[in-house]
Amino acid sequence: MEARNAIALLLALVVAASFLCDGVHSRHHHHTKRHSVRPPSHAPGPSGPRRAPSPRHSSPSAPPPARTPPSAPPMPGAPAPAPSDDGDNVYDVIKDFGAVGDGVTDDTDAIKTAWDTACQDDGEGVVLAAAGHSFLVHTTTFTGPCQGSVTLQIDGTIVAPSEPTTWPANSKRNWLVFYKADGMALRGSGLIDGKGQKWWDLPCKPHKGGSTHGPCDSPVALRFFMSNNVTVQGLRVQDSPEFHFRFDSCRGVHVDSLSISSPALSPNTDGIHVENTQDVLITNTVVSNGDDCVSIGAGTLNVHIENVTCGPGHGIRFASGAWGSRGRGRAWPTSRCGTR
């Protein structure tokens, strides 16, 4: 009896142990199955771009450029911002400063403001009067010294007012003046037109029978005063009311590849006049006018003139005292003078 009870107890224990083991295996299999079918926590979207993670040792990719909000237009009368072209400090008088360029509208303020803005830049600034436009400019002074160097690039046309009566009474001796504009350049492929005809026809002019001693002021087209290391290159300049160029109290002047013209009977229209100026180089230039091709005044030292064609006109004239009180300095004129 006892043996039968022991066998029954043993069988019960075996059955219980088998049931426990089957339960454990069953629960383990169920957990693995749930884990294998769980969806990923970061499923990709339908079509949106994703940034791939960078390798640990590679350089990080540059972030996309930030969008720059459009800038507000400049207030009237305020300097316009410089163009956004990287590395180019170009001040376009039409695009950036509101010049019209139709030859009728007064663009003096636009060009003067462009100069003043470029002059405050400590780099190399270019004031651009673009080709295909004509800019009416009244008498004005471009003043330095500038923080950097400024180039006035004339590829269009600059025209003076044609009526002498429209000029201010106290500003009839100069049109465009560059004062203390060290290191500047005036260049381009354009034209500077002084509109001198009505000035030449004033009754006070000697060839019109007027008094040679009375007041008869007429403007010099381009005057450089107390400006050092100046370059003028490539331009056509015509019909100045009086001298086309005048350099006073300057040092280091280079004039190259100009075409200067006015009628043969236009009075006192010297092509280039230098006075109290040192170290002047005039090259590759053609002057056709009604007075001196090049006139060299008192206090001028070290002038080199090479490959300059004069005529009609009076040739190259050396004023008394042109080389200083002791005759210091030298000139090397190599030019052709005569009728063309």
From TrEMBL:
An individual GO BP term: cell wall organization
UniProt-listed InterPro entries: Glyco_hydro_28 (IPR000743), Pectin_lyas_fold (IPR012334), Pectin_lyase_fold/virulence (IPR011050)
Family of this protein: Belongs to the glycosyl hydrolase 28 family.
Name assigned to this protein: Polygalacturonase
Organism, as annotated: Aegilops tauschii subsp. strangulata
Span of the signal peptide: 1-26
Subcellular location(s) of the protein: Secreted, Cell wall
Any matching Pfam family: Glyco_hydro_28
